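Quick question: who can interpret this fold?

. . .
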Amino acid sequence: MSASKVPVSILGVSGFAGSELARLVADHDSLSLVGVAADRWQGSKLGERVRVPASVGKLLVAPMSDAITVARQSEVALLATPAEVSAKLAPELLAHGVRVVDLSGAFRLEDPAAYPRWYGFDHPAPELLAEAHYGLPEVASASTRTGGAKDARLIANPGCYATAAILALAPLVEAGAIDPGSMYVDGKSGVSGAGRKVEERLLFMEVDENLSAYRVGNHQHTPEIEQALSRAGRARASVTFVPHLLPVRRGLLVTAFARLSGAVPPAQIEALFRRAYAPADLVEVRAPEDVTLAQVAYTPYARLGVRADAERGSVVVTSALDNLLKGAASQALQNLCAMIGAPPLSPH
């Protein structure tokens, strides 16, 4: 291993997001993948499961019972584990001096009382919730941590729907351009968003040529979206969010609706978005009709389209991304690189 490379471990490598993480870390010039763990693949060589360079493919997948031992070889651990697992692993890793980027929802919400309702468990480390940096790189106002990701010990990687929705609405709430209580988000995601697990509703015969809403009024990304937008707009935000399951492998598209406040003329709304995301290499602003799953699938980009309706006093924003990349693994890589001061994308 080159002395200039930062050693990284991945816990939960057998999931869809974990597998993408392995590929991305292995291909990054500033990172060295030194350990992986997952019960499902334990004992296998990583290269038998994920397409990675031969040198990394020789790594044996350890069981999760050895997760701390595996992670202690690294400077940064990427947790692609369920929220309740991450909530227990992260404090122990931090105690051993290992920094953490967590892809679950374990550290996204600042209020520990929200976890029983939205995640189904009492948080075992509530003292870390205020410390965790909410890592949406293109919307710095979504986090309350001074200094952002740089030098953070713990980064909460945003959820896939939350990423798309916040990107769609943050410029509007930051500018006071909409009524923060008037936001509605319609989300549609591919089947991989549910993770690599067997459920009747995810079977081919249930999903193919079908479309269905799920977790209506009870999706865990709802409070995450509201929290980030409340921070960005410095006023309480209320969002009605309904997710849907699409019969596609990957990709996510949300359509957000809100009522204009009159603070920004409708003719200037698109320019507002272009200014907001001009510094962002991985966010593109296009016409709403050009925001499609095909344009973002298998890429680290998010694509947005916005249109204000002066006659009705409303605005519509479409936002698309790959749920496994910008909605999970490649965004985690952005956060990891910001944490350690490395380039976010490998030059080759």
Observations:
- The first helix runs from residue 16 to 26.
- The mean pLDDT is 94.
- The CA atoms of residues 295 and 303 lie 8 Å apart.
